[in-house]
Each structure stands twice: as C-alpha cells, then as structure tokens.
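Intended use. Records like the one below are meant for learning the mapping from a protein sequence to its folded structure. Do not use them to infer anything beyond what is encoded.
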Amino acid sequence: TLILVVSACSGDDDPEAAEVTPTTEATTKTTAEPTTDTVGAGCGAATAEPGTERIEFASGDDTYEVERVVPPTYDGTTPRPLIVDLHGFTSTIEQQNLFSDLPAQAADRGYLVLTPQAESATLTISGEQIRAPFWNVSQGLSAEVPDALDDVAFLTQLIDTTTSEFCVDDARIYVTGFSNGAGMAATLACDLPGRIAAIAPVSGVNVAAQCDDLEAVSVIAFHGDADPLVEYGGGSAAGVDIGNPSVEGRVGEFASAADCDSEPETSSPFDDIELHRWTGCQRGVDVELYTVVGGGHTWPGMLNYVDSEKLAEITSGDQRLVELADVDLAEVAGHMTVNVEATSTMLDFFDEHSLATR
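Structure written out for the chain above:
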C-alpha cells in the first residue's frame, strides 16, 4: 500500500520541501559495548562474508524467505547488534528495503539486518476476502484468519538461529516494522520478554494484540495522526473494527510497564512533529513517540532518500487494500514529513539502548 501512496504523491510534493535536510537534537551517544555475558554463541565460528544474501528458512512445516545483510565490519569475533525489519500487510522484502533503507544505513553502522518475507493469509475486509503477505500479530486471530501461521515461533527461531550461527551481541537485538510489521514488532516485545533491547514500530504500534504480561522494553514509535488505515485514535485497521487502543494509549502501556511517569513530556521540534517522551522510567529504558501532524500511513522521512526509479520498477498497481478500506489514496499519504527520518532516528535510539546497561 505504501508503494502506491508514494508513487501517487511524491511527485506532487513541493520540490523545495523534498530537499530539506533533517536536523536532529544534539545527543551524546552511549553505544553499549558487549560484555562476556552478552556475547552470542556464534562468536568465534567461521567468519561469514559481508554482503547480502537471500536464504530459505524452515520453521515447522513452513518455509520463509529471508534477506540477510552482514555488515562490512563483521569479523566473526566482535559481537554485532541485530535488527529484524518487518514489512507491512500485502508488502514484500523489496518494498520494505526501499522504505526503510535499513540494509544500507544499518549495515553502515555495523548492524546485522534480517528482513523476512511473510507468508500469505486470507483476511476479510468490507465483506470481501484478500489474500496477501500477513504477519500473525495474535494467536487469537485463528478464527478470523484460519490460515495465518505462527509467525512468533518463526521469528523467535530466526533470531535464535542467527545468534547461534553469527557473532551477535545478545543484549542488542532490535525489531522494527511498518504497519502490520509494526504490530508484529510490538507483539515480539510482549512474547520475548528480556530478549529484545528496543522496538521501533512505524504506523502500526497499536495493531498488536493486548499484552497481559508486558515487561519493560525501550520503544521509539512513529505514527501520523491523520492515518486513515491504522487510525491514531484506534478502534480499527483498514476499516475493520478490531477494538485496538489509540497509538498514545498503546505506547503508554509500554511506558507503564517500564514504571515511567503516567503522562509524557510533549515538545514540538518541528512544526509538523510532536515528540512525546515518558520520563522517570526504569534504568536504561526509554519510551518515545513521534507524531507526524497531518501524517498518513507512511514511513517518515523516506522522501529524503527514496529511489523514485526503483519505486516505479516495483510498483504493482494493486490498490485492492485501499479500495476495500474505502479510503482515498491521497488521504493514506497525508502529510509526508521530511523533517524527521524514522530510520536514522531509530538507529540513533538503538545505538543508545542495550540490555547490558539496564
């Protein structure tokens, strides 16, 4: 869906706005160094060659495709941080790579990056069925989506296998994702307590199922307050009533799990950005939400780096989800900020958060 949004709207944006160089607040980075307790089992194994590889990964009776990026600095003995990057509903590895640019940006910082491809499932939207790649954000969906797979089991196995075969810093495992993938990132934070150092959900933190035993985890979330597909106020996704909480409510749940103050401090670093920061949290845990004022269902800041030619190459023209949700394509795009880049901002956040410093 985001492919369609950017194809339709990127050419209409103010060309001067698209050239704005994002600025960030001054911070002092405290990148955690691995300790002997956080060095993965794969350290000292045969050194993998840096680069990008597509692999097939078996989980139970199912086989998933995964793109694995090994950074240029990887030597097999120095533990590297790991990011799992999850695409949205109906989307692909190629599209997620284009939006997030994580294979390039994260690898430049020394991160291993895993971008898996979800298997297809059949969902009913507006009384009609649509079959497309889907992350099963709740085992409670088995009645509504009977062919959805156990993606939590798959992603857990993927992380376990990667840490056993590669030199990974066990204290620095992160998950991000867009839309349905953002919901999956929040689900993993619930289902893998004490394993994930931080998550960065983009346009979908509130579509994960309710977590009854949520434990403290660092969160940096991004969401447009005019998103018509995953509404900021909650209650529905793609026009389907799922009773989900508001974005601020869901991020507040993460803040509560970390014993943060109940109300966030709110600032406006840019005219189109509201930054909500919960303070007083447990040591080493931070919870933040970037709200794009007037923003739609997009990846903030992508217009600063997206390859428009590549975008055109992989655009399928399939607007079925947007049509079934009965929303206008321009509304889905909303205001596409260039002032905050979700990718570089989350990487700065990941650089500063490790389980070893908690």
